[in-house]
Structures are given as structure tokens and as C-alpha cells.
Amino acid sequence: MGKMLRESVVVLVALGIIAGALYPLAVTGVSQAFFSHEAEGSMIILDTKVLGSKLIGQPFSDPGYFWPRPSATRLVPYNAAASAGSNLGPTNPVLIELVKRRVEALRAADPGNTRPVPVDLVTSSASGLDPHISPAAAEFQVARVARARGLPQDVVRALVAEQTEGRQWGVFGEPRVNVLDLNLALDAFTER
Fold first, then answer.
1. What is this structure's pTM?
2. Domain ranges of the chain
3. What is the arithmetic mean of pLDDT over 79-93?
């Protein structure tokens, strides 16, 4: 029995060192060496000021900006420390009411827009932090943003097209638009 206990303790300590120290150090070292920007959180920095992360959604509500998917995090929207989906099923009355209110808010912000509202503008992603919207969700907002900024719709539409990312490696996922990148591109264009 003493031998078994000693062997168990040795295995426990060895696995603790390997899994608790050596492996995390190796992964951190490789990520810093080959993917330092991503390992640092993919921060977007402008004039030494951190504007946000390319990987986490940001709240925008001004009509002159594109709006992201709704956040599912409670209390503080887009809080990475509280990442989680809402876990509300499609027939849940709470989700149905949330979606109705979000559609009403979008219609109130752009009363002339009678197009169907893309689902990603009224439902949160699984993490509640998604920084992307679909090209259809961006197109839905073009008229409102163009009007608020005093720009022709074609100019705003061209910025959306420029900021649209394709499928990952040409195969995985769907085309998408990073909302923070798009809004920064809009700001840069209007500052010219």
C-alpha cells in the first residue's frame, strides 16, 4: 500500500508540473513567438490609445456608426469576463420579447428601411461577444449611417465591401464584417 501511495504521489506531482507549468509555458512561448499580436488580445491601437480588441464586440449606438450584434453579457455589454450565451430557446417568451424590442429599435432608428431585419442584428452570438456582423446586416444599416454622416450610400457601401472578410482559408465560416474595423474606416474616411 505504501508503494502504491508513493507512486500515485509521484505521478500526481509529475503531471502537475507537466500540465500546470511546462505545457502552459510552451504554449505561451510559441504563441508569443509566432502570433504575438493575437496572443496580446488583437488590440486595435490608434495614437497609443487602445480602442478595443478585434476579437471582442464593442457597443455602438450612435446612428452614424454600424451597430454590432447584441451582447448577451449581463450588466456590462461585451464584457469578456462574463462571456456566455443567453441560453434562451427560440420559443422562449423572453427571447421573443427581446427580439421584438430590438427590431422596433432598428425600425425607429431608420423608419424608411422596410427591408427584413437580418437575424444577427437582433440575436446575440453563442459567446455574446461576437465582433462581426454579416454583410447583410451591414447592408441593412448603410442608408442610416450614410444619412447620419452626410455621405453618399455608394461610398458607405464601398467601405463595407472593403471591410468584408471572406471565409476562413476560403472554406470555413461565412463572410463577415468586423464592426470596429468598419467604424474606424468610416471615421478615417470622414476625417479626410
1. 0.78
2. 1-40, 43-190
3. 79
